[in-house]
């Protein structure tokens, strides 16, 4: 008997539904179905245009069911309905973006070949892909993988987080409704060690693409090495948000709040590491803290709610652990640092937006990904120091630079070792622009054309039009 898992609404701990966790054997069966569909099915050989049409149908169905999906995401994650609607819109945009890229999969003629040779590159699917997603953007993160994997002609096994599986279950129903052949997209539900691990271990999986924590990513990379799978990893971040004294201060304060507190800080690219020029540091941090105290926490379905709860009791306990660490390390608490007082929030996993001043680079609070609503504020004096601090992390996912001197901002952006840098902005991504991490934030890229080519095997086909003996090994007799 598989254990039954309760799916909990983080706003009030009500049970949304119960789902049977699948077993390792069931995950292996799903891999076998995907293998069979790849080796014997039509999907890998269908034209890219046919596959693109399916993706566009998925986008249509997501638009049709947008409200229902967004509500489900809010129930499952606690994020506001406005955020969930944005997520669905973004997912539609990603399916449409890849639904428009069939042309990139056509063979490419190689130029500059020797005489009497034709040579081309075919873009073939990699094979069976294991796609593993985290709980913070459940529908969005798995879609960044599914859309390009399908366009390229792969078959797949998808595994959502066991904490927030509901919109992924819905997405797999829509894939079916859009006309995807049986066995091409297979869903497994359950824990990482039980149904996730086979996706990085099993010899019948050709590629594993994972979004989640650094520790799990390291485990997946190590186990994928045994069968030399292709590995794509989107891991954590500790993302600097650098504010120069010549920035538009009101706008920078406003974005400092959304950078760090959007979705209660449970965002891989959240700008929780605030790095502010010393001339404006005190006033800037005071204003961020003052406004953090005004943030309205609540039910994601209420229109005036600005931020929802954390995803689970365990996750809140982890975030609260950093409050103790902050005290030990001597950071100065300027806002939050506690659970809210409102009686109506007591059943949810809420934590107040938190701001710490007097932070420095060597603090654990500054270096660790807390994945919660905690800003650490550091000071800098020179441009070089700002760049140094911005790069002073094992991660390299994203960062922001605020200045009205655009040459300076571009200089700093160029030096930052992060996969995305925003200038006078923080947060947006585009389906057509590559997303991913330098350093320990990951391997490979999602989105953009690189996000498609993660799922292709370029094959060089070289044809000699006038074959003739080379006589390199010219001896034909035995003495
Ligand atoms: P997690 O690593 O705990 O889990 C992610 C997924 O991996 C889940 O589905 C989990 O069940 C599965 N898993 C766990 N152990 C496994 C194993 N041994 N083998 C295979 N699968 C296993 O991460 P999380 O807590 O769900 O997500 C938060 C993390 O995700 C943060 O570190 C965040 O920065 C990161 N993240 C990164 C990006 C990005 O684009 N770089 C985006 C979103 C989240």
From TrEMBL:
Keywords: NAD, Oxidoreductase. The active site is at residue 234. Gene3D superfamilies: Aldehyde Dehydrogenase, Chain A, domain 1, Aldehyde Dehydrogenase, Chain A, domain 2. Pfam families: Aldedh. Residues 6-461 form the Aldehyde dehydrogenase domain. PANTHER family: BETAINE ALDEHYDE DEHYDROGENASE (PTHR43860), BETAINE ALDEHYDE DEHYDROGENASE-RELATED (PTHR43860:SF2). Belongs to the aldehyde dehydrogenase family. This is Betaine-aldehyde dehydrogenase. The gene is betB.
């Amino acid at each position: 008997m598989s254990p039954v898992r309760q799916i909990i609404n983080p706003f009030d701990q009500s049970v949304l539904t119960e789902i049977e966790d699948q077993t390792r054997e069931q995950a292996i069966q799903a891999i076998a179905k995907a293998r069979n569909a790849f080796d014997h099915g039509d999907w890998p050989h269908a034209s890219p245009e046919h596959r693109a049409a399916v993706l566009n149908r998925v986008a249509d169905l997501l638009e049709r069911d947008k409200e229902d999906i967004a509500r489900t995401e809010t129930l499952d994650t606690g994020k506001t309905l406005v955020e969930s609607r944005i997520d669905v819109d973004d997912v539609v945009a990603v399916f449409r973006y890849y639904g428009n890229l069939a042309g990139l999969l056509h063979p490419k003629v190689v130029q500059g070949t020797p005489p009497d040779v034709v040579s081309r590159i075919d873009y073939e699917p990699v094979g069976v892909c294991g796609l593993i997603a985290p709980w913070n953007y459940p529908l969005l993160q798995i879609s960044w993988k599914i859309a390009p994997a399908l366009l390229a002609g792969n078959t797949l096994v998808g595994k959502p987080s066991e904490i927030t599986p509901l919109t992924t279950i819905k997405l797999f129903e829509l894939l079916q409704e859009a006309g995807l052949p049986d066995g091409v997209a297979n869903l497994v539900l359950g824990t990482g060690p039980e149904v996730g691990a086979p996706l990085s271990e099993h010899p019948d999986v050709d590629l594993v693409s994972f979004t989640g924590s650094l520790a799990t990513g390291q485990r997946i990379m190590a186990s994928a090495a045994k069968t030399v799978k292709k590995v794509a990893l989107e891991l954590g971040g500790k993302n600097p948000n650098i504010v120069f004294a010549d920035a538009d201060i009101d706008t920078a304060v406003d974005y400092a709040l959304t950078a760090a507190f959007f979705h209660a800080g449970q965002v891989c690219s959240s700008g929780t590491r605030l790095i502010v020029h010393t001339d404006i540091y005190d006033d800037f941090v005071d204003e961020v803290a003052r406004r953090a105290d005004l943030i309205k926490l609540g039910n994601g379905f209420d229109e005036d709610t600005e931020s929802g709860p954390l995803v689970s009791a365990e996750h809140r306990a982890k975030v609260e652990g950093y409050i103790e660490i902050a005290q030990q390390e001597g950071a100065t608490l300027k806002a939050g640092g506690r659970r809210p007082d409102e009686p109506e929030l007591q059943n949810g996993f809420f934590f107040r937006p938190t701001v710490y001043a007097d932070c420095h680079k060597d603090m654990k609070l500054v270096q660790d990904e807390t994945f919660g609503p905690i800003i650490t504020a550091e000071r800098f004096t020179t441009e070089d120091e700002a760049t140094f601090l911005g790069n002073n992390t094992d991660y390299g996912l994203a960062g922001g630079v605020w200045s009205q001197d655009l040459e300076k901002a571009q200089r700093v952006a160029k030096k930052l070792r992060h996969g995305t840098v925003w200038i006078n902005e923080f947060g947006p991504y585009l389906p057509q622009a590559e997303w991913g991490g330098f350093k320990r934030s990951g391997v490979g890229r999602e989105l953009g054309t690189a996000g498609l080519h993660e799922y292709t095997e370029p094959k060089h086909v070289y044809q000699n039009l006038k074959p003739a003996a080379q006589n390199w090994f010219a001896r034909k007799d035995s003495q």
